[in-house]
Amino acid sequence: MVTLHLMCGLPGAGKTTRARELELEHRAVRLSPDDWISAVLGPDPGDRALDAARDPTEALQWELAARLLALGIDVILDFGFWSCEERETYRDRAAALGASSVVHFIDTKPELLRERLARRRVDRPASTYLVSDPQLAEWSALFQRPTPEELIPRAAS
Prior knowledge:
Helix content: 40-55%
CATH topology: Rossmann fold
Distance between the termini: 11 Å
Shape: globular
């Protein structure tokens, strides 16, 4: 059964690392906005440009994902999926295409997130953006943890 995989978690949680593993395990196509944005805008576009690019990039990646799912190819969306509403929207889209869906929640303790993001600010790995402690605190307050029911794989209807 063709599957849409949704990577859920805060910056620094390990979503992309796990998405890369899933990519190999499922012979899937991984789509990450950070990869595309950094390819177009470079490694340091600034917060305003980064924010402006995210929604259009995710929309383009969804168009590609929908086509791939329709062709029977598993897709991994490495978007973060911070809200229940967003997760449900994409799961409904997958179901409409005849695909199952799975939410992969990468639950990482706040102190480990801060440590990883501090290391990222020094190491500057490709296709990653700098996240400050105040940004992490703000985003953590906005993040909606998935319910146990959301983590149950959903078969296509």
